[in-house]
Amino acid sequence: MISKDDIIKRFISYVIVDTESDPESDTTPSTAKQWDLANALVDELKAIGMSNVSIDENAYIMATLPSNVEHDTPTIGFVSHFDTTPDFTGANVKPQIIENYDGKDIVLNATENIVLSPDYFEDLLQYKGQTLITTDGTTLLGADDKAGICEIISAMEHLINNPDIKHGTIKVGFTPDEEIGRGAHKFDVDKFGADWAYTMDGSQIGELEYENFNAAGAKVRIKGKIVHPGYAKGKMINSMYIATEFINSLPRMETPEHTDGYEGFFHLYSINGEVEDTVLQYIIRDHDRNHFEARKEVMQKLTNELNSQYGREAIEIDITDQYFNMKEKVEPVMHIVDIAEEAMKQLNIKPLIKPIRGGTDGSQLSYMGLPCPNIFAGGHNFHGRYEYVPVESMIKATEVICKIAELTAEKK
User: Fold this and answer.
1) Distance in angstroms (rounded) separating the CA atoms of residues 283 and 399
2) 178 catalytic residue (yes or no)
3) Any residues with CB less than 8 A from the CB of 19 and at least 6 apart, and which?
4) pLDDT in tens, 31-83
5) What is the spatial distance between Cα 190 and Cα 194, in angstroms, rounded to a whole number?
6) pTM of this structure
7) Catalytic residue among 22, 44, 83, 157
8) What is the per-residue pLDDT across 93-115, written as a single tens digit (0 to 9) for each?
9) Alpha helices in 238-288 (DSSP H)
């Protein structure tokens, strides 16, 4: 039996540690404060009885639970990340525990009138009667992905304390900097030594994902000319107006707020502009590889057309691939998805098999030789003040890990 109190205590001990990553840093981990939780996790893994616990110079953590069966079984892994997104502050997290949720509004912060309401976040109603952990409305929570770490360590502890549950060799790995796209960059797949793995980095209970976006970033720099506005006729070139043309020339309805499911998008997430120089930052996403390449081509052609229109190199664009759809690497070994699906069914969890509208460490790991589908960790509304996680979902995710280990051992 997985202890609810232990899950809550463990999870809260993680989220109160600030581990926000920094995309502007060139170190690994990108922030020194990530070491605080990383070192604590190493101590905890040793304390529960894991073997071969290690942390390298970049804060990548690995540990092993040896097999307790005599026959050969595949070596499987479970992976989560301990950094939190720089999109919203993760400093001074003050988690709130809502027992027996009544299905009504939750006042996160009365002083600032911040309310978590099922009128807006309808998923809340799935968890009526359950225990929720929320923020106080001033920070994110960090369930992405400290819930995953909590579940993996809790599952390993449960298997160690219950040797009657048969399993093969299990590897666990915790990474820094996933939220800034670098979580798998320095992950040593050979050292990890698993045949396949699962990231515990999904959202609501039942999620099981082996498809994700193909992803690229685009930096668009527009050059203008500044002169005195009173004498500007025929001389001034305002880079912000050219930037507006660029923005408005892309399909307006192919943006995150207008797309869902398998639909891709262009996402303008940053503008920094003056008359002489404006920089636009985009991300490009699509599940279909051909459509993904076409989106990049659209942005390049638009750049060429505007440069031709203005008769000079007014615009520079730099498009960089970030990660690719793991489907290509997972489909040849679909039994690893089947095992996870069967584990959920045996635990009376309805599998929700759908594409990830984002990416996980698993997408990069799959291309590095470690096929790695993604499983729910239970949280909702990641990357902001309305983030919450039902404790019962974390318990179920912990049980799924144990069941996957058991089923894998049974298959010999």
Assistant:
1) 36
2) yes
3) 31, 33, 34, 36, 37, 82, 83, 84, 90, 142
4) 999 999 999 999 999 999 999 999 999 999 999 999 999 999 999 999 999 99
5) 8
6) 0.89
7) 83
8) 999 999 999 999 999 999 999 99
9) 239-249
